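Sharing a chain and its predicted structure for anyone who wants a worked example. Both blocks are below, sequence first, tokens second.
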Amino acid sequence: MHVSLDGLIARTNGSMDWIQIGGEMFDYAHERTEHSNTALYGHGTYKIMDAYWPTAADNPNATKHDIQHAAWYKKVRRIVVSKTMTDPHEKNLEIIKDQVMDQISALKKDVQGEILLFGSPRLTSSLMQENLIDEYWLMVNPIILGEGLSLFSGNKNEVKLKLIKSIAFEKGVVCLHYSKL
């Protein structure tokens, strides 16, 4: 998850135009996704991802990252938390409509490997409230937004973390990998 130095994930208007990305981060993201066979999304984030990734590798100007991530996206088990989506009739896509926390708890016991949660601030907040997030991977961007959508604003619980690893990337972005104590 990309965050500003002050813990925001989007401007007040929802814009994420401040996020810095580059080749080293794409290589690292590819390495991370290769350890996972399950991706979890909220409805809004899934719509954004699904509008791009299924055909990203088909573009004649597709980058190495586009090709790698599009291949992963097509093969990974994708789970979307949404009360409004209809049954997908699509390979590797499942929808959780109700009893969300119970189903995600069961999913965590069932899945071999990591479950990656992409974006989805409301879902992230709900999972934090239920103590269902084991690790945090934050891409801290060198900007203070001042106001906007906070990653942690919905969380009411104290969460103690242990720093596992930090990596400095180009453009001043630092990846912080924490595990829950």
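Comments welcome. The radius of gyration is 16 Å.
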